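Input sequence (112 aa), recorded before submission:
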Amino acid sequence: MDEARDIAERCVAISRAAYGRGDLDAAINDLHRLPDDLPVRGVLAADLLAALMRSGPMLPRYRLRHLDDLLAITERHPPGTPDWPTVTLPPRGRPLTPPAQVSLHPQLCLLI
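Predicted structure, token format:
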């Protein structure tokens, strides 16, 4: 399999997992295997971040460690939407608070 095809298939698998049709943890790991200069990484990271937020108010510790990395990717490769939010999350090690107590973009709140 050529590299471009492998990258495309990995992107599809990540996107599917972000919307509940795949392994979320494997998708997060796959995201980190994509080339750093691939612009779609920001969109995929934002989708995975939203999936983590939708998964419930109490993220397990092994998933909490992914939040900073996903946010850093979205900062390097911001999603192309003009209203991409700056998401404020509680300090590491604390459960995510309900949307009303977290500064989130309104569209991201709808996903939770």
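Checked by second reader. The helical segments are 3-18, 24-33, 40-54, 61-76, 106-111.
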